[in-house]
Design goal:
Blueprint: E1 16-23, E2 27-35, E3 41-48, H1 53-70, E4 75-82, E5 85-86, E6 93-95, H2 107-114, E7 120-124, H3 125-136, E8 144-150, E9 154-161, E10 167-172, H4 195-198, H5 200-207, H6 216-241, E11 245-249, H7 251-255, H8 259-269
Parallel strand pairs: 1-4, 4-7, 8-11
Antiparallel strand pairs: 1-2, 2-3, 5-6, 8-9, 9-10
Length: 270
């Protein structure tokens, strides 16, 4: 999306509860979040993301109904974070390399219908992460910043604010920037994407097993290459956007906090 990618009129300051969905390439999580947005959230369901869109809609509808049933007050809306390029009208995913069967589907319409017509909004998962960090976390007060998610794929969103206060938040295809000399084929169809070094799904496909189960020597090589290539990607990000602060999240970052020091060193070296 090239326009402001906030969550529309699912009002964060409305009194009540929000149904929050993190629909990742590997796992889906459904939570109840208090509105106005605060540190009150309860995860209601977690399950493997279905690769078939129709199967995911059924499982997600069941989890959302369970969450609605547990709300102690009015539910005022549904917000969904999804790892893919979102249609300009916000109706669904245009491109989702890790969830191909979801592309071009009327996702928002179907979820809203199964939730009794509640206002439902869909946004890129990295945009959601950036909005959360700007409101509640590491990016509070930052005028030019980015949020990088390291998980099934490698996603990114940036917020650029002019001196007058007007700003825009957009997702960018950071994981699909091309690296010179990289002959690896990405799930998006391109050859040479950064994500072929940093995407959890592609790494698992390359090694034929969960990366956490690799022998120590292979783990060392994997994370060294991961850090080197991602450091280059971060330097490119700063050069092209002039962001001043980057927050990093996602399952890979959560389970490998040692990457932060490696990335800092790699960026400093370059």
């Amino acid at each position: 999306m090239a326009a402001d990618e906030t969550m529309g009129d699912v009002a964060p300051d409305a009194a009540g509860w929000l149904l929050a969905v993190d629909l990742g390439g590997t796992r889906t999580r459904v939570a109840l979040v208090a509105a106005p947005l605060a540190a009150r959230a309860e995860v209601i369901a977690t399950f493997p993301t279905e690769q078939r869109y129709a199967d995911e809609i059924v499982r997600l509808a069941e989890a959302l109904a369970e969450a609605q049933g547990q709300a102690t007050g009015p539910v005022v809306g549904v917000g969904v974070a999804l790892g893919g390029r979102i249609a300009r009208d916000g109706s669904g995913a245009l491109v989702a390399p890790n969830l191909r069967d979801y592309e071009g589907r009327p996702f928002v319409q179907e979820i809203a219908a199964r939730c009794g017509g509640l206002p439902t909004r869909l946004a890129h998962d990295a945009v959601c992460g950036l909005l959360a960090e700007r409101r509640l976390g590491a990016l509070i007060g930052a005028q030019r910043c980015a949020y990088l998610t390291l998980s099934t794929g490698t996603g990114c969103a940036i917020h650029l604010e002019a001196s007058g206060g007007a700003g825009v938040t957009v997702s960018i295809e950071m994981g699909h920037q091309l690296l010179d000399g990289n002959a690896r084929v990405c799930l998006c169809g391109q050859t040479g994407c950064l994500e072929t070094w940093t995407g959890g799904k592609l790494l698992g496909m390359r090694y034929g097993q969960a990366i956490e189960t690799l022998p120590a020597a292979e783990q060392f090589d994997l994370w060294r290459g991961f850090s080197e290539k991602l450091s280059l990607g971060l330097v490119n990000l700063v050069a092209l956007t002039r962001v001043e602060r980057v927050a990093i999240g996602g399952a890979i970052a959560l389970h490998h906090p040692e990457l932060l020091d490696a990335l800092r060193a790699g960026v400093a070296e370059r």
